[in-house]
Amino acid sequence: MKEQLYTYHQLYLFAKNIFLQIGCSEANADTAAKVLLSADLRGVDSHGIARLTGYVRLWEVGRINANPSIQIVHETPSTAVINGDKGLGLVVAPAAMQVAINKANNVGTGWVSVKNSNHFGIAGYHAMMALDHDMIGIAMTNASALVAPTFSIERLLGTNPIAVAIPAGIEPPFVADFATTTAANGKLEILQRKNEDSPEGWVQTKEGAPSTDANELKKGGALLPLGGDKEHGSHKGFMLGSIVDIFSAILSGANYGPWVPPFPAYVPMPENLPGEGIGHFFGVMRIDAFRPAAEFKQHMDNWIQRFRSAQTIPTESSVIIPGEPERKMEAQRMNNGIPLHQAVIDDLRILGAKYHLEL
Amino acid sequence: MKEQLYTYHQLYLFAKNIFLQIGCSEANADTAAKVLLSADLRGVDSHGIARLTGYVRLWEVGRINANPSIQIVHETPSTAVINGDKGLGLVVAPAAMQVAINKANNVGTGWVSVKNSNHFGIAGYHAMMALDHDMIGIAMTNASALVAPTFSIERLLGTNPIAVAIPAGIEPPFVADFATTTAANGKLEILQRKNEDSPEGWVQTKEGAPSTDANELKKGGALLPLGGDKEHGSHKGFMLGSIVDIFSAILSGANYGPWVPPFPAYVPMPENLPGEGIGHFFGVMRIDAFRPAAEFKQHMDNWIQRFRSAQTIPTESSVIIPGEPERKMEAQRMNNGIPLHQAVIDDLRILGAKYHLEL
Question: What is the pLDDT of residues B242-291, one digit of tens each?
């Protein structure tokens, strides 16, 4: 499929101007555009500017508040619950992370559960906010239900990602950022575009049978928890996705399980909502609340170097340290530009025309 | 294979008396026996009394201190690092969890990283200590390296389990407790006893080739991270195991990666150790540091009931709520007794004879 390269700055400006046009403040438009584009830079194309139209549609139907009043509704020295006031998750999440960082500064760690928010882009961006402060960052979110728990034929969980960012010394930081499913939905979309089958263990049919049809979700099927089936540990992926759901939504008062609001604005909202909006959970731990940061980083360097230099299977040259491929991609795309599929470009141009902006 | 039933009390007394014989205090022997036996009760036979001889052997070679002085070596209002003084992990872990609970009482959450400890039994026991306080409990530990990271042929990580215990209202608590590998080593041992093959994705040969030989570890092979291979998300299992390793050992100053001391006393210690003993990590979050506990529990009940009543594949009657099978097993074994394999009984009788105790 045809692709075109855009500079980071071009896409950042376009996204920021769209956010300004729907009524975001200058600061919020800047943050939202940065968070969104960080996904494109890091190669997580499914969560980047390709979703801009989706966010705007949610605003158009009144499900996103462009000018939220983001409030702490309950707190202790190390915890807070934040009401996102229906704001863009792209804006609510960094605000919540900042609260967690402040608490970690004060008492060693900070833990923030968020309700009444929307999709927050890539979890990794938020977790990585902690790195500059010599802190470990954790970010997770629930999402609309696409995943069938082990033995279920109903979709009850989102892909519920977890990100953990850990500072190192001379080595780049360790940054894990992964959906708690065998494969994220974005990987299925790539196979759909190529008209290819998916590996076993990624999806099941609506009757719960194993399937390799990359279009299974459109036929009522479901994504599978990490592990794929019980024999391969899918109950563990289910537990992980459940923990993300509970920390993000039951601690905060957001919607959970099958009641999480869908991202596409045209999909009807679930009925009898038990909470408000979607939920996130953030954690920050100050390294020197445990041991001197310099000592910790020296051992992280040692850890990273030992794992990177492990003997590998013949077809691979090294073990991949979490975050390394995304960091390389970011450097490369910042220099050479970000490739967009023609379908995404067309979609953004229609959006731009509506708001008198050119891409 | 022949099995015999013992009452909980018989096995508890035997284990406690052994711990007393090697010099544990009354209180520590009681705790150690309770933690050890909780594994047998919950059906995690690989981590229960079958390991008693292993713990004693570690004491015999001087790697376990029966009378440790467990000390906080650094702390902030929400964090602590604890030096286990080479104590039994079975004793060090509950002490560390208690510190985390106290901190959660004071400032909302408590996070404790532990060095210079030993194997701590099942992670779930420690996480569940939080439940009676209306708190969420988290427990993890690193362990000696049996797991090859994605693309590696070297064993660099332990099975590094994670347990998360979350209180509910009228429903029993949600208790996840799982190794970050496709299957725990205990499951392989069951197949070995039955002379059966393992499913694909559990182990690889020492050259890194896929294998279904349940005896592969004895031939230099490795367990695989949850996911099995890259196509099925094993890099996610690798990330999870890595996070457990880093939180448990690099935050505290314990050994990590391939340097974690082995459980069998006859296996030589790794050289050039970067830390002290093995590491654990514990977290406790007070529910009402986020929202009123009664509200939270009501939503947990709703969550559990919705997931338990999900439509299932034809061969299964319900989705398994994490912790439910173990809770049922515990009730059943507390009533009817704990079955031990003849090989375990023989081993315990030899141990008993050495310390003038009868089983």
Answer: 999 999 999 999 999 999 999 999 999 999 999 999 999 999 999 999 99
For A140-205, give the DSSP string. Answer: EE--S--BPPTTB-S--B----EEEEE--SSSPPEEEEE-SBSS-HHHHHHHHHHT-PPPTTSEE-
Per-residue CA distances from B325 to B41, B96, B314, B333 (Å): 11, 27, 20, 12
d(C-alpha B228, C-alpha B286), whole Å: 35
**In chain A, what are the domain boundaries?**
183-223
Q: What DSSP state is assigned to residue A209?
A: -
B72 close contact with A: CB closer than 8 A: no
Q: What is the fold of A183-223?
A: Wheat Germ Agglutinin (Isolectin 2); domain 1 (3.30.60)
- Chain B residue with CA closest to A199: the answer is B231
Contact B53, A262 (CB under 8 A): no
Other CB atoms within a 10 A radius of the CB of residue A218 amount to 9
Min Cα separation B243/chain A (Å): 8
Question: What pTM was estimated for this model as a whole?
Answer: 0.98
Q: Whose structure tokens read 């992280």? A: A300
> Exposed, middle or buried: residue A216 (CB in 10 Å: 0-12, 13-18, 19+)?
buried
Instruction: List C-alpha distances in Å: A139 to A190, A358, B11.
Output: 25, 34, 43
Q: What is the ipTM of this complex?
A: 0.98
From B74, B149, B296, residue closest to A310, measured CB to CB: B149
The residues in A 220-239 lying below 8 A from B, measured between CB atoms, are 226-228, 231-233, 235-239
How many inter-chain contacts (A to B, CB under 8 Å) are there?
Answer: 247
Instruction: Report the alpha-carbon distance of residue A214 to residue A208 in Å, rounded.
Output: 15
As a whole number of angstroms, the distance between CA B118 and CA B158 comes to 13
Nearest residue to B50 (alpha-carbon basis) of B266, B358, B357, B346: B346
Helices (H), B6-74: 8-21, 26-41, 52-60
Count CB neighbours of B147 within 10 A. 29
Closest CA to A179 of A133, A204, A142, A131: A142
Residues of chain A scoring pLDDT < 50? none
| CB pair distance less than 8 Å for A243 and B307 | no
Query: A40-91: per-residue pLDDT in tens?
Result: 999 999 899 999 999 999 999 999 999 999 999 999 999 999 999 999 999 9
Distance of CA A153 to the CA centre of its chain: 25
Inter-chain contact B78–A232, Cβ cutoff 8 Å?
no
